[in-house]
Amino acid sequence: MKSSLDRKILKVPFTLNTPKNWPCPTCQSGVLSIKGDYFHQNEIRNSRDHSNDAWDPDWVSYTFSCMFVCTNPRCKETVSCAGVGTVDQDYVTDEDGRVQPEYRDFFTPRYFEPHLRLIEIPEGCPESVSALLNESFKLFFCSPSAASNNVRMAIEELLTELKVRRFNLVEKQRRFISLHKRIELLPPRYAQLKELILAIKWLGNAGSHANGKITMDDVMDSYEMFEHVIEQIYMPKTKKLRALAKRVNKNKGPVKKIARSFI
User: Which tens digit of pLDDT belongs to each residue from 167-184?
Assistant: First the structure.
């Protein structure tokens, strides 16, 4: 399954000359474009002193805020964004075709409101699960560890929605079952998903520990695996029906019974 997640768009800083094509969080069809003059940047206090003889432009650090607008004329959602910036050397081609170094401002977002939707969540996915995924999306740019922990909690909720028990009764007292054990208790029809869910759990565990080193790539690994899991659970019938619709449309009428045996 090809994931809807675009790692390069999420990880690489942007410049004002080359903004990112972040999908609109509301309509998902338009992309976000900087709205007019609604981009503001300022050097942070420790960056303003340029008097040091060894000072170099790449010592500069910014904070920025801006407003984006969706390019879809039927949507035109506005999205606020805040983050940090630096100055770094880039290379441009001049009129004579020579490659020349040039300093540019590069910006990295930390917050979006409304937040970006980083993977596709099927309509049938329970609110208890999707709410935690959306909370993870809010935290992704500013705290990968916290984002990863929310994905782990989403796994807990997913297992509950799949009727995997949360505790055992021991001498009339509830003893909660570990997440690892709950994954092992998944019904046989989800057996092919156990390995993926277990991997998501391990990444979530690392995000839960104070010394856990979780990167944006680690969180995106979790997102891609989670997207596949919930697609397999909540979208398989939809995919089959779409395939059937394509066959009917291609034939411009009923399909042969032998072609229907796949549903």
Answer: 887 777 788 899 999 999
d(CA 76, CA 78): 6
201: closest CA among 164, 157, 232, 168? 157
Residues of the chain with CATH 1.20.120: 120-253
Cβ 161 vs Cβ 126: under 8 Å = yes
The second-level CATH assignment, the architecture, of 120-253 is Up-down Bundle (1.20)
Q: Which residues have CB under 8 Å from 182's CB, separation 6+?
A: 156, 159, 164, 165, 166
Q: Which amino acid is located at 4 in the chain?
A: S
- Cis preceding-peptide flag for 114 (omega within 30 of 0): yes
Contact 230, 128 (CB under 8 A): no
How far from 8 is each of 167, 216, 254, CA to CA, in Å?
A: 41, 11, 43
Let me know: does 119 contact 230? Beta carbons within 8 Å: no
Q: Using an 8 Å Cβ cutoff, are 118 and 6 in contact?
A: no
With DSSP H G I counted as helix, E B as strand and the rest as coil, what are the percentages for the chain, rounded to 5? Answer: 40, 25, 35
What is the secondary structure of 197-215 as a DSSP string? HHHHHHHHHHHHSTT----
Strands (E) in 133-251, as ranges, are 167-170, 173-176
Tell me the two tokens of residue 58. Answer: 């790449």
pLDDT tens, residue by residue, 65-94: 999 999 999 999 999 999 999 999 887 777
C-alpha angle 223-137-114 in degrees, rounded to nearest 5 = 145
